[in-house]
Amino acid sequence: MSASRTKPGLAGAITADDRLSRRSFIASASGLIAVSVLGLPRAVSAHSSQPMTFPPDALGKPGIATQRIDGLAKVRGDKIFARDYAARDMPGWPATQWHALYLYALSTDHAFLGLDLSSLSKAAQPRRIVYGDDMSKSLRSPKLVRRRDLAIDEKLQQARQTGKQLQGFDRPTGQEFDLIVQPGATPNYLGQAVALLLFDSAVACRAAQREMRFRDTDFQVYATDVSRSENMGEIFPPQTTYVKYDLNGQQFSYASADPASYLAEVPGWQGRIAAEIAAHPDYITQSIACDMQATDPMFLEPEAGLVWYDAETAALNIVLGTQSPDGDVRDLAGMFGSADSPVKVEAINLTPCPPGGGFGGRDSSPFKLMLALAAPFAEGHPVRLALDRFEQFRTGLKRHGTTVKGALTAGPDMSLKLVEMNFAFDGGGRKNLSPYCAALAALCAGGAYQLPMANIFAEARHSQNISGGSQRGFGGPQAYFAIETALDDLAAGQGWDPVALRRANLATETSTTVAGGPIAQELRLAEMLDIAEAHPLWRDRAAIKAEFAARGISYGTGLALSLQAYGTSGDGMVAAVRMAPDGSFSVQSDAVDMGNGSATTLSVAIGEHLGANASSIEMADYDLFGQTGLTTDDPAKQRWANPNWTAKSTGSSSACLTGLHQVHTVKETARALFEGSILPAARRLWQLPDLVSSEVAWVDGFLVDIRGFMPPVSHRQLAQEIHASLRSDEPLPTGALGHAYFQSSWAEADFATAGGTLRLRLDGLATYSAQDQAPTPIPRQNTVGPDALTTRYSRYVWAPCLNVVGLTVDRANGRVEVQNVLSVLNAGRIHVPELVSGQSQGGIAMAIGYALMEDMPEGMEGPANGLWNLNRYHLPRMADLPLATSYAPGVRAQELVILKETPGDGRAGRGIAEAVMCSVAPAISNALFDAVGRRYASLPITSQKILQGLAS
Questions:
Q1: pLDDT digits (tens, 9 = 90+) for 907-932
Q2: Rounded to a whole number, what is the distance in angstroms from the first to the last CA of the chain?
Q3: Which intervals hold domain Aldehyde oxidase/xanthine dehydrogenase second molybdopterin binding (predicted)?
């Protein structure tokens, strides 16, 4: 039971290197750490770095999915998630595993002194106890490197260049946060670990869990005197300020100003805004004051994983379900990369699993650090850490609790003049992605509208609460709730029609955001309002209200718009497409399928160019980037003039990248394979050396000469020609590997291929010559890439959505029942209609819970006390949701109307996983205002709050 005390005292930090491959390296203070991504055991693998495979009879027509590629494995109950695996399942691992259990802080006002486990039975005693002072400083508080958003990372880099030190483990500047609290220290936040218990059997671990559950105070010892945690409430940098002025020929904005002087100029322009408003006494100002609670992502599988430190090979082996494998590997390298690490780590072998749901809650999650932390103390044994639902509620990342204050100003002609908002995000204990979420909320503060003036400020602060992080909407839901409820309040106060007010101010492709960045994308917001106004749910709202009133029931209808951004301020993606000797295709992608269907979508994305869907796909292959020949290092500051440089390698799967970004990358790579290998093979088979792509087409699995000169050739014939050519003097590639970068526009370049020079919207291309060989990079030429200054636009692409909600209120008990939801969505090109529908339905369910049910008190009254599960945290059930898919009088339904694709979409889809959710909560609040004449601006709008409002 006694803990081993080893305190070498680590120091130093890693330097980020984006060049990861199947056997790539990260530079650390103690040398290079090799990084490998391994597949799950083939005998039990259903997913991730082992391919997911369509059954032969389910491939479907090119570009059309007949079923989810992972569907059968999940229905059969195959081993899929990290929780499903034990050490004995992993090739080369010891079969006997230990089990880890963390205990968590109960106070930020008293010093933690230690544990008293004397009351535990003998069967429940741990093999080992690890305290915070049993580990070195760098292991206890590792250096992390974030590359989530280039615009914010630029701000952080500028701060470091002025002398501020690199952030340690998710802490504000100057504040030390430990993974495990040291005895004698006051915990920094609730949910911070105070001890690690290691057990040599699952039986002992389960016995300890049973005996200790709900009895934390019986085992943890704290000082009686008050000793509050230092620096509580300190800022998680950076803060975001968007001030915009675009009147009378004068312009100022974050996007257009000199980055070096922007903040110094802000006060002067804020003064001009105030003077402009003061000069127009006829302007109407509507105040904004709302708040939103923290919520849990409540994904299907609580976090779990395996870790094993192999001393013989100095390798850290880890099995993990994650949204951000690239960042996780770098964080682990930082954890063990210091010269005085307790164990020497020369290699990190990651086996990624499907996360089992994410919604952002697994993006840069600290779980992988807590899992890896156990490895050096397990005496050479693998360790399993599997949170139960109580622990997930207690420690998992949350959507931020947020307070919004401000005002919306309009002229008497309904024209919006100014939006002012101040966002205060409760970041909780760890920094995580809190400032990124706050920054996107600031960008979304203008909603779907053109505003000549804006004054927006957003920040996230450290608190004692459970850590906040990215979650579906990424700050958008808070912003859209604020502006959309304010618009209805403004309309009601002036006697204006709420739709007419919105229509008078809609953003278009010539508008700019509150940051001053151009929208430059077809939105079709007016068309969406037309559809909503003509729909009987809105058109007949007065009659429906009267019908319910006749039955003694209050009914209201609310409408809200959102213009959710997707992607980040700069996104890199990588994909490989390969052709097997039998003519079948496989796809590899750095994307993570969180259950949203990305694997299925990318499997059919190649159909347009290759005449067939992929029969198999590997996800989470972020390490493919190391095979492209590209680097993010640019010491000479050449940017795109450097033929080997790109702005970003890969990123996490938390920014709705599939519909546009990942699909584009797979399609362009498939086009490179067709133009650079398959078409040349057809030229050889047909002996037509001048054949061009416009003279052929795919028909029923055959490449056809549309002029009718030559007989069709099958995929198998083409594949045989390509693979046979490998033995000739003029080999043709069997696959292509492409890297794409998007930042307001795609980077593009020329590449010399076997089929001739191709102009591709890729910034990296490599070709495979055999199944097991690394690809050969092709030097790019005539590169045109996005300008560096466009990062200050913050976002570039948008997914508009309008929601109309009809609901009833029982004035006796305050119960709200959503009767109908109409969602009008501009999704661009639809890749898999069923997946879009599923994303919409999931977004509505999550938004109804966010607006009406999901309540998470702060401090020890909430999940931090370890007592919370689904008995206390209320999610929508089937009875709470309208389930029909088409509106009809008297039927509870959620109807999705998707705008038809137009040439303005550029044959591209949009990231819509967050879009539908963002405007549901304000539509619900607006419907409640219509139903009972009270504004409910504090989420969740529970029955108790309804009754309190009615009583007042």
A1: 999 988 899 999 999 999 999 999 99
A2: 59
A3: 534-620, 797-882
Minimal CA–CA distance to 838: which of 593, 621, 624? Answer: 593
Strand order, beta sheet including 798-809 = 554-565, 798-809, 816-825, 893-898
Q: Give pLDDT tens digits for 717-766.
A: 999 999 999 999 999 999 999 999 999 999 999 999 999 999 999 999 99
813 within a domain of the structure (yes/no): yes
Cα(408)–Cα(479) distance, rounded to whole angstroms?
Answer: 13
Quick one: 642 and 518 in the same domain? Answer: no
The pLDDT of residue 73: 87
Cβ pair 809, 556 in contact under 8 A: yes
Distances (CA, A) of 192 to 187, 367, 466, 500: 7, 12, 8, 50
Query: What's the CA gap between 916 and 826, in Å, rounded?
Result: 10
The verdict on 276 and 412 lying in the same domain is yes
| Residues 418, 535 within the same domain | yes
* Total of domains in the chain: 3
The residue whose two tokens read 């947020």 is: 402
- Stated as kind and residue range, the H or E segment containing 547 is helix 541-550
257-284 pLDDT, tens digit each: 999 999 999 999 999 999 999 999 999 9
CA distance 370 to 817: 41
Is residue 192 located within the same domain as residue 243? no
* Position 292, amino acid: M
Check residue 35 and give its pLDDT. 75
Looking at 847-930, which runs of residues are DSSP E strands? 893-898
Encode pLDDT of 888-897 as tens digits.
999 999 999 9
Q: State whether the Cα torsion 193-197-198-204 is positive or negative.
A: negative
Averaged pLDDT, 414-432: 97
Residue 945 located in a structural domain: yes
Write a three-state SS string for 92-159.
CCCCCCEEEEEEECCCCCCCEEEECCCCCCHHHCCCEEECHHHCCHHHHCCCCCCCCCHHHHHHHHHH
How far is CA 934 from its chain centroid? 35
The per-residue pLDDT for range 331-361, each reduced to its tens digit, is: 898 889 888 789 999 999 999 898 998 888 8
On whether both 356 and 504 belong to a single domain, the answer is: no
pLDDT tens-digit readout, 483-531? 999 999 999 999 999 999 999 999 999 999 999 999 989 999 999 999 9
Q: Which of 600, 595, 743, 757 is nearest to 666 (CA)?
A: 600
Q: Of 327, 357, 386, which residue constitutes the final position of a domain?
A: 386
| Domain end residue (candidates: 338, 355, 386) | 386
Determine if the peptide bond prior to 940 is cis (ω within 30°).
Answer: yes
d(CA 252, CA 246): 7
pLDDT for residue 315: 95
User: Domain span at residue 577?
Assistant: 571-785
pLDDT of residue 169: 56
Same domain, residue pair 598 and 730: yes
- Tokens coding 562: 């959102």
**What pLDDT is attached to residue 448?**
99
Cα–Cα distance between 44 and 211 in angstroms, integer?
A: 34
For residues 275 and 269, give the distance between their C-alpha atoms in angstroms, rounded to a whole number: 10
Tokens, residue 613? 């869907």
CATH number of residue 838's parent domain: 3.30.365.10
Angle, helices 476-494 vs 920-932, to 10°: value is 30
Do residues 814 and 904 touch, judged by C-beta distance below 8 A? no
Highest mean pLDDT among 67-71, 153-157, 821-825: 821-825
> Looking at the domain assignment, is residue 162 inside a domain?
yes
| Cα angle 37, 42, 45; round to 5 | 80
Same domain, residue pair 697 and 824? no
Residue 12 lies in a domain: no
